[in-house]
Amino acid sequence: MTSTSTGPVGVGIIGAGVISEQYLTHLTSFPDVAVLAIGDIVPEAAASRAGEYGIELHGGPEVVLDHPGIEIVVNLTIPTAHFDVSRRIVEAGKHVWTEKPITTASEDAAALLALAAEKGVRVGGAPDTVLGAGIQTALRTLREGTIGTPASALTLFQTPGPEDWHPNPAFLFQEGAGPLFDIAPYYVTTLVLALGPVQSVSAAGSKAREQRTIGSGPKAGEVFDVTVPTQVTSILRFESGQNATTLLSFDNPNSRAGFVEVYGTEATLSFPDPNVFDGDSELTVYRGKEATAIPAAGPVTGRGLGVLEMARAIRAGVPHRGQGEIAAHVLDVMLAIEASIGSGETVEVTSTFTPVEPMPADFDPFATTL
């Protein structure tokens, strides 16, 4: 799928909420893309955000969908709206990059990918932190065979929860959130990029408290109910034969986050935090005494990097790395974990994807290449 256009790729934004600031800060700094319009169901929000970044066209979502110069639309709406908005983008004949999750239901993700294939457009999905220098350096190291044959992996995210610092945290402890849906996308995406598609999962979940108290902001002291597991432990079995254990917790006063290790026959590779774009890796060889640092090499920017990589891939007619198929598979893994917690049984994951190669270390977001 090669674009015949030249010059910067036209980009539109739908959703002018908090996360749009991060995307716009970076997208407006990349020479190979041009943000042409911002739309929101609250046009005043779009106007305010457009004013901050000097974008002339703003209004409702239609100003983005109807713009003939926009090739990629970035969907930054709330998760429950992702499918409907992304479907409208695809029906308008435009490529879509969506914030996580790609949709909230497996059947919707499959329908979106099928529609995109029919229309001849692409779907890409967050998180794009995994395209930053940190994780991509670790993936290149893994591909080079430095640890021998990968055998297993371990990921850990343990905190006391966000209610102490977040001014309105109740939604993070309710359906559609919790550590599983809020945090797992970063860790599961890293694991599938490292080890390939997941075949099945077994999981258990618990919650330390039925209620929590807001610790800061105007709602400090308010009590809210916890309706989802706040600690989730999962065993992922991969099509390639490896397995991984992942622990995600809002219940641990002793914070430990960003822990990703892949164990091989010759060495252990410690990845940086998958929720950031930078960070060095560490290699510990079998029977070695000390870990060796592997400095991160590659782009260190922020959200929007995946949109840029997708734009360049479209023009070159090559697959982009933040593929919708990967985002859909990660969603299926999380839903399988949720189902396994409920049933106490192993749950098969039926979706799959074609693994992608790591980004080259010399990928330069600030170069003019188109």
TrEMBL record:
Record domain Gfo/Idh/MocA-like oxidoreductase N-terminal: where: 10-123
Superkingdom classification of source: Bacteria
Name used for this protein in its record: Gfo/Idh/MocA family protein
Keywords: NAD, Oxidoreductase
Keyword Ion transport: no
Domain GFO/IDH/MocA-like oxidoreductase: 136-269
Any Pfam family hit: GFO_IDH_MocA
InterPro entries assigned to the protein according to its UniProt record, in alphabetical order: Gfo/Idh/MocA-like_OxRdtase_N, Gfo/Idh/MocA_oxidrdct_glycsds, GFO_IDH_MocA-like_dom, NAD(P)-bd_dom_sf
Gene3D superfamilies: Dihydrodipicolinate Reductase, domain 2 (3.30.360.10), NAD(P)-binding Rossmann-like Domain (3.40.50.720)
